[in-house]
Amino acid sequence: MTGSQSPRRRAIQAFYRNGACWGLGNGMVSSSLILYLAGTYGAKGLAIALIRAVPGFVGVLRLGMPILIDAVGRRQLFCTRMFFASSIVLVLLPVVSMPGFLPSPKLSLVVLVTMWAMYHLLQFLGLVALWSWIGDVVPDSIRGRFIGRRGALLNAFQVVGMLIGGSGSWWWRGRCQNSGHDDLIWVGYAACAVIGALLLGLAVWPLVRAPVAIQKEESTALDIRQHCQEIFAPFADRGYRRFLAYGGWFSLANGISGAASFLFQMRVLDISYAGRMALKSTAEGTQSIIMPRVGQAIDRWGGVPVLVVSQVLVSLSLLFFLAATPTHWWWIIGAYVLWIAYAGVNTAMPKLMLSLTPKAQYTSYAAAWFAWLELVYALSTIAGGLLFDWASKNFTPRLWAGFRVDHFAAIFLLGFVLRISAAAWAARIREPGR
């Protein structure tokens, strides 16, 4: 019974329930959904890149987390407030940006991007507080297993959300096309966003009911100089800088090819949102199956070996983009199969983040990690969008080793080189106790 459980165990169970409900909501309202919604407003390469990148720019504000939490006084309260506020913003996003509500589609797109950024900022702030909370509650000896199990729950329910959202939007799109009302296709995407936002709001409840942090939280007021030292301490930590270097390269590699890979699937291969969700849900469903095992492997052998192997496998996925064509689109399935290796990346990263952090400094170190990754990803995504727009107009297709290399293929090759070299950065990380 709940009453007989220790506060630590009850908190861990709350984290599991939050992950399951959050995964369901996030599956319903993924970034892909917002990109397809933006597509109904006429979004192009740079606009697609902005939607993917703007959350990263606002995410840098997470560096101020120690100041914000000090002002609120309780990390748990701050965490739940931020998550709940983010769900409210997400509910309003499709309503405020819907066609006809504002004078022009361009303005609707601007509002959509702005509210998408606000939603992510609030969610990111809550996420840093949550991981700081987890750092205090979950002992290092079982963190790999905990992260693997929570990640498996999150992914499994995210798959359910993606399947529901994908099938629902597919049904609505077909109905609109059959009745000659293509202008109403956006309604299906908007409905998924609203339902997903409500589920994300519901995911806050387990955290509200959870016991407070196991360790006592410091509530002493710090001056601005002390706050600045706390904020930038992770960047002065030599061991943590290796981890940040890998994270930055990882984000750079993903951001550069992000716009091209999305537009290639949507416009060249003509994969519908429902089809994309089917492929993604299959890959992430498989991740859910293996993540607990990955967590056990990390607790036994360490996070760095798992991270290096997973990074190499993920890198090879872009080679399947080179082989895929409109008549041989099924090659893209190989990329999704290799993306299952993200189970290792997504489990090892948070484990290493907590393991490399000095005790009682989880908030500032987690804030630095997430803010740095998001900033690099945002800048590289914008660069990738600009690169794609330039290459689509100026790059001349040519034959290389018997293959026709167009602007898509050139960007995919660049992305492959950057991703595979990220494994070398991962190998430089020095994990405590290993």
Helix-strand layout with pairing:
Blueprint: H1 7-28, H2 31-39, H3 45-59, H4 65-72, H5 75-96, H6 105-137, H7 143-178, H8 185-202, H9 204-209, H10 224-236, H11 238-256, H12 258-268, H13 273-301, H14 303-315, H15 318-323, H16 332-338, H17 342-355, H18 362-394, E1 398-400, E2 403-405, H19 407-427
Helix pairs in contact: 1-7, 1-8, 2-3, 2-8, 3-6, 3-12, 3-18, 5-6, 5-8, 6-18, 7-8, 7-13, 7-17, 10-18, 11-18, 11-19, 13-14, 13-16, 13-17, 14-17, 14-19
Describe the structure.
This protein is an all-alpha fold and 434 residues long. It has one domain (2-209, 223-427): Growth Hormone, Chain: A, CATH 1.20.1250. It contains 19 helices and two strands. It has helices at residues 7-28, 31-39, 45-59, 65-72, 75-96, 105-137, 143-178, 185-202, 204-209, 224-236, 238-256, 258-268, 273-301, 303-315, 318-323, 332-338, 342-355, 362-394, 407-427; strands at 398-400, 403-405. It has a two-stranded antiparallel sheet. A hairpin with a 2-residue loop joins strand 1 and strand 2. Helix 7 (143-178) runs antiparallel to helix 13. It is globular. Mean pLDDT is 82; it is low at 215-222.
